[in-house]
Amino acid sequence: MVKITDVARHAGVSPSTVSYALSGKRPISEETRRRVEAAARELGYRPHAGARALASSRSNVLALVVPLRTGIHVPVVMQFAVSVVTTARRYDHDVLLLTQEEGDDGLRRVADSALVDALIVMDVQLDDPRLPLLRSLDRPSVMIGFPAEADGLTCIDLDFKAAGEACVEHLARLGHRVVALVGSPPEVYVRQTAFAQRVVQGFTAAADRGRLASSVHPCEAAPAAAREVAEQLLREQPALTGVVVHNEAILEPLIDAFEGLGLRVPADLSITAICPDELAENLRVPVTSVALPSAEVGSRAVELLMKKLDQKSVPEATLLPPRMTERASTAPRNAP
User: Fold this and answer.
1) List of residues 6+ apart from 156 with CB closer than 8 A
2) Contact criterion met (CB below 8 Å) for 297 and 80
3) Sheet (strand 213-217) strand order
4) How far, CA to CA in Å, does 161 sit from each of 168, 189, 206, 221?
5) How many whole angstroms separate alpha carbon 199 and alpha carbon 246?
6) What's the mean pLDDT in 242-264?
7) What is the DSSP letter of 113?
8) Which own/partner contact pairs does 38-42 have at CB distance under 8 Å and 24+ positions apart?
9) Residue 190: exposed, middle, or buried by beta-carbon count in 10 A (0-12, 13-18, 19+)?
């Protein structure tokens, strides 16, 4: 096992200097700190976790709060979680995953226990009941998502409003005049989940600006529900030629349902989505989509938290612009 004395010898400094450089307990010149960190990396030195916590008054553990509520698409949530965990490890931190729906009580229990140094909070609602507690905690936090009132909080996410707008604007450029949003399960909207609400805002705003006929349809994450929505849309909007999907679980079943009802994609119906790239590009009909940047959001959330732990200033709001990739599911409208 590599010892602190081995790092000191390799870097040409004393063991106490290594300790100060790695813990930040005393000021060390930038050149010396970099030399010590390089030596530690080269030798594979890992401070003993208990000694490290005593020296720094930190646990080197982050909490990731992900209430697994109904309507959540777990595979996408896990993409965020994996990104948080792998990035935290680069900063020598572990991650405690909290999945129970405990609200303030769960957050306070963890924060008061000294188990974690800081928190990342997901599944944010517009009027999130956890906000007063997060504002009062003496531990830093980052929210993946934007509540309606975000003052005094650090938030990061895809700009979902702009993503909804981008999907509609793409369809409008192709000549589509009647569009629909097939959205998240109904319970997601009942909870006022922020990202889902922002997609609706963007979709509706862009459709209104372009004077497109539009409608919004929540959809359960099941193939039977996708079939019901497809039938409802064609019954209520027979001139429909453009669809935006914000529900990863029903994207492929919805395409199958429309084609089963006699509509070819994209000859008769163009479809766009907000979803992970790997899903959109591997469907039977590759779908034009705005990427869900789970890896980038998770990584940057950890980076923001590390800066806050080091008493560095960070922006309160980080909105990632939508990135659309055109694929085979969209085409110019077939004018009658």
Assistant:
1) 142, 143, 144, 297, 300, 301, 304, 317, 318, 319, 320
2) yes
3) 213-217, 178-182, 242-245, 270-275, 288-291, 324-325
4) 11, 15, 10, 22
5) 8
6) 96
7) T
8) 38/11, 39/7, 39/10, 39/11, 40/7, 42/10
9) exposed
Cα 307 → chain centroid: 19
Q: What is the pLDDT of residue 181?
A: 98
Two structure tokens written together for 158: 């895809």
Instruction: Give residue 2's pLDDT.
Output: 80
Q: How far is CA 223 from CA 184, 250, 252, 254, 313, in A?
A: 13, 6, 9, 7, 47
Looking up tokens 């905690």 gives 137
pLDDT tens-digit map of 182-229: 999 999 999 999 999 999 999 999 999 999 999 999 999 999 999 999
Q: Which pair of tokens denotes residue 302? A: 């950890």
For residues 152 and 170, which has the higher predicted lDDT (pLDDT)? 170
pTM of the model: 0.82
Spatial CB neighbours of 53, under 8 Å, sequence gap ≥ 6 = 59, 60
CA nearest neighbour of 98 among 131, 125, 121, 124? 121
Across residues 76-98, what is the average pLDDT? 92
pLDDT score recorded for residue 51: 47
Checking if the pLDDT of 102 tops 70, the result is no
